[in-house]
Amino acid sequence: MGHAAVLLELAARRSVTGRAEQDSDGDADVEVLVDGISKSLKVLKRLAAHARDHKQMWEAEFDFCEELEAKYKARETEL
């Protein structure tokens, strides 16, 4: 899932759940708060996985470019 899709999902959830419902005493509904925190943790885990995958991709691309540069320099010195 892309970064934009995660942000859209967060926005959609926020508009559906809104703020925590309050009971007659004015206290926040604990179940609603726990559900919101649980959903937030799931989204954070997805974002962390996305960042980890993105980092691995950039590292692989960087290594590939360094290898190409080394081959180019070696070939240039042969000529």
Q: How would you spell out the order of helices and strands?
A: HH
Number of helices: 2
User: Based on helices, strands and strand pairing, what is the structural class?
Assistant: mainly alpha
Main β-sheet description: none
What is the count of structural domains? 1
Mean pLDDT: 80
* Gap between N and C termini: 47 Å
Poorly predicted sequence stretches spanning 5 or more consecutive residues:
none
Describe this structure in words.
The protein has 79 residues and is mainly α. It has one domain (3-18, 28-78). Helix content is 81%, strand content 0%. The chain is built from 2 helices and no strands. It is rod-shaped. The mean pLDDT is 80.
Helix/strand layout:
Blueprint: H1 3-17, H2 30-78
Give the tags:
single chain, mainly alpha, rod-shaped
In short:
The protein is an all-alpha fold. It is 81% helix and 0% strand.
